[in-house]
What does this fold into?
Amino acid sequence: MPALWDGSNRVRESDWNERVSKVKRLTILISGNGSNLEALIEACGTHRLQAEVGLVISSKAAVFGLERARRHGIPAKVLSWSEHRACGGSRSTYDQQLARCVAASQPDLIVLAGWLRILTRFFLDRFPGKVVNLHPALPGAFPGLHAIERAYTAWREGTIRETGAMVHWVPDEGVDTGPVLRVVRVPFREGETLEGLTERMHAAEHGLLVPAIAAALAGEAGSLGPSAAEARAAH
Ligand code: GRF
It folds into this structure.
């Protein structure tokens, strides 16, 4: 069981499924391997989550996450950012197209699970209070890409002793700065390699994601911890 974010408005774990009155529909956005998608599909299948995955959208073609969706009989769609850009499209037109696809799936919650793009207001304004993101760092630390690698380097340089992962709401275009639903802490281990850390981080994320999504579905507001609030103010 991951450590839980000690913020306000928390929903007790035992209350999750009671608070979620009907099966909710998740739309999951991915860009790669999809191991976090798999964790959510499994949790839905075993009823740890009172939810179903209605649609998976990938920003990249031919990634393994699409194959995972297909194996589970879940509709999966590619909306290739590189193709969109090659055809003269912009971030805003991409996000408008993405929003149309997502809206058609009628989601209760949109989960960014390894989605490697910053969503603009052209997407977010259509889904207020419905988007959550998984980020492999602690609140306020290492926003953006390559967070695991950057944390590892910082540890090797002696500036940090732990990293972690979080699931947070995405209310605006801020990068990994929204109200935090759940956090898992991952202390570094003496002598570990980047590969070893990456493996432990992924396992921690898989454990974190299910309770965090349950909390989001139960309507938990999340909280801005001190470091996340600072990062947000600086943005
Ligand atoms: C995860 O570490 C996630 O936090 C990051 O990208 C990775 C995606 O992994 N944004 P997967 O595609 O779910 O296996």
In short: The longest strand covers residues 51-58. The domain at 23-127 is CATH 3.40.50.170 (Rossmann fold). The pocket of 5-O-phosphono-beta-D-ribofuranosylamine is lined by residues 30, 32-37, 65, 113-114, 134-136, 202, 205 (CB under 6 Å). The chain has two domains: 23-127, 136-167+182-235.
